[in-house]
Fold this protein.
Amino acid sequence: MKFRLPLFKLAFFLVFLFSLTVTQAQTIVSVSGQFVDSEKDEGVPFATVAIFKNKGDVNPIGSGFSEEDGSFEIILTESGTFFMQVQCMGFDGYEQALTVDISDIKLGQIPLKSQTQMLESVVITGEKVSGTSTPGAMKFNMDAQGSDDMEEIVSNMPGVEMDFDGNASIRGLSVTYLVNGEESGMENPLQEIPKQSIASIELMTNPPVEYASSGPVINIILKEDAKIGNSFRMGGNFGNLNSAKGYVGGSVRTENLTINPWVYYSQRDRETFGNNEQLNYDERFMEQSHTSKNGWRYGSAGTWWAYKFKDKSELSGTIRYSLSDNFSESWNNNDFYDLDSVTFRNTNVRTNENNGFTRDFSYENKYRKTWESGQKLSLRYLMNYKESFSSQHQGSDYIYNAEEDNATILDRGDRTNDNMRHRFQARFTQPINEEMRVVTGYYFDYRKNNQTAEYDRKENEGDWIYNPDRRQDACTETMAHDVFASFTGKWDRFGLNLGMRYKTGKTDIHQWDAGMGVYDDFLNQFSNLNNTIKLSYDLKEEGENIMLSYRNNVRPPSAGQLNPFVNDANPLWITMGNPDLNSTKTHYLELEYLKVGDTYTFKGGAFGRKIFDQVARYQWSEADTIYNSFHNIEGVSVAGLNVYLQKDIVPGLRGTVDGSWSYEYMPDREGDLSKAQTYYFIKGNVEYKFAKNYRIALTGRYTSTKLSNNAQTAGYGSMDINFERKFYDGKGKVYLNIRDVLNTIEQNVLTSSDSFIRDSFAKQETRMIMLGMSFYLNGL
């Protein structure tokens, strides 16, 4: 039997979205009919029809989609006995055997039964203890998502804000990515794991203690029921701002063994311009204009493998290697004035050039065992080594007022970092019955960082002079032990999750300062206890619940915040840590309502945070030099509301509205009111699938003024457009993505400290146009 697949020609890539043509196959027999909604007696458009030679086959011998009125026609090139399968979002699947001879087959009307919940892309988890459900999580099924771009999918989830570089946050807190409930060792799982390998994603704004995270969590759950066979995927895009991305990967799967190798590369450049005005409290004023250019290149390669034993245990592992380099160039013109006499003081013209390089290697092994009684054991070891080098060249031209001599000073500094990490963790799950379970675990984490910095200086037209007094060496070691236990249970409609995590450890910093001729040895020991309580109640049998959760978190300062290592590569901008910092203690409270209807999903709630000893950066100035360090502030309070609505408007058209409002109170170093700020964020998305293989999505965002520890950023709006066309039975895709269509993203920042206040404006080219193609073949 032979089937001639459609052939497509891409004449010019810039107009490839409109230049696909199809070569018609020779007609032998047609299979036609019409799909209708069994309840509404209306045609069902965009249903997928696939005809296979045998039931269970992966590759169809013919396929297509239903038209707007539900009608369809599939052309076959040979007779025989075949199997037809029909799938459509919001309807139960349909299957039928076909006997094809030389006559056309007219099946007439085929009723499809509407599912109870049309929006299968969103489900409530935590109602059952089995499987990968997590209490209080919102699960998104990946097969029901229209886009294949994981960053686009995640950016449209409730409360998620994603910046220009793909960094996600929720309510101002950075998102932690997990894979199957555990750290992955990957730099960015959204870029390195294809959508086709993901079963679902769990979004948790207030995660249980099983997840060692102080903020929201996105848990990527991989598919475990993939068919035996091989797969291949590749894709890439390019655009303005010297941006490009490419990847090649695949999988080999036998009955017991799975191997998934990949290679990934991305790059991007950007230019920024702006100005600053700074008023020092000692009556000095500075005007600054600045331009900069920076960029990065990143590449990674690796493989994931898993072997399943006959006793339902599995041994898996990941090996990964990545390289990255970055550069930046900047030019600053600073004019200084003395306000008491309103006289010009001096001008400082500065140039700055940075180059950095990073190598990263990680290796992971994991063993999982499941018993017939439902008990589960997971053992995991992770090793990560990262080496980085950066070189900074700093130039300063001083033009003084009055009779003083002008001066030119050039500085250059080289800095190296070696980081080693070993992590071991064990987790055991003991089911009590179908509705209850207990999870216990132990984590051990060891990290070591070696850092060296050396500097040269040249004044006026002199020679480069190495300054041994500015050499600094530091070694930081952190060791932590972590144990936890949690209970999850459900009684009728009432659910409960209790958790407790105890962590203890130490951070040891050894430092040699050649200038001071001293060796410092600093030890910081810490221990903390974290608790979570989650109460949930199902208002109906399924599809509607309400949840109240509380969590406290104690987080010690990072080694970088504690390290008294002084970075004076730029003599006008000096940074250092503070070894006297206390641990940050945070209390979270959240009330949430979730309703999944036939054609919509609604989520709304209120949240609050109370933070003690928050670690914040602060600045002060001495003469023309700005110093940066860290300190603790007391009593930061945050309260807010959030709402999310996703609605299927008509078949193929889906709309989403997502918004949040919050109020933040932040005291100064003495505990008095420093800033009180309201902040709101709103996001809207419309997605439309039409003409079988086409999809277009428009996303608009607006943020009001944001408040940080010592700065507030003015609000801005932006709009993105995504257009794609699928081909080759959905296995291939060409697309056009435009980020920030109107080029409206800019930064207006007001910064204040104990010694100055600064008003800054910065603008960069944020309109990013990407043309791309991807291809995925499964069951080879």
